[in-house]
Amino acid sequence: MLVTITLKRRQELHVELKETILRAERVLLHRLGFDFNVEHPYKHLLSVIKRMSQAGLIEEESTKTLAQVSWNFANDRYEKSARDIITFLTNAQVYEHHYALSIVQTI
Q1: Mean pLDDT across the stretch 60-64?
Q2: In this structure, are residues 84 and 55 in contact, taking their beta carbons and an 8 Å threshold?
Q3: What is the pLDDT of residues 43-56, one digit of tens each?
Q4: For residue 63, which of 73, 74, 48, 82 has the smallest C-alpha distance?
């Protein structure tokens, strides 16, 4: 019985810690000016390609290929943006650590 209570409390603490971390990340991203309302381009890409195909600007056989290539470009851009944010946050942590050490050393 004691093990079950301990395990249950551990799970509760884990959930609390996870929620605390997620809130802190959200606050940090908000302070950095991160835009949480992102409009993804996929629907627009497919709409434009469909209209181009209907207007005869691209051959019907090329429609699927163009859609796939466009989709891949959009994915690559979003992946790069995410990597840039992670790199920035990592570098900011390193900078803050070195800054804190330099302050401590001057005291």
Answers
A1: 83
A2: no
A3: 888 888 888 888 88
A4: 48
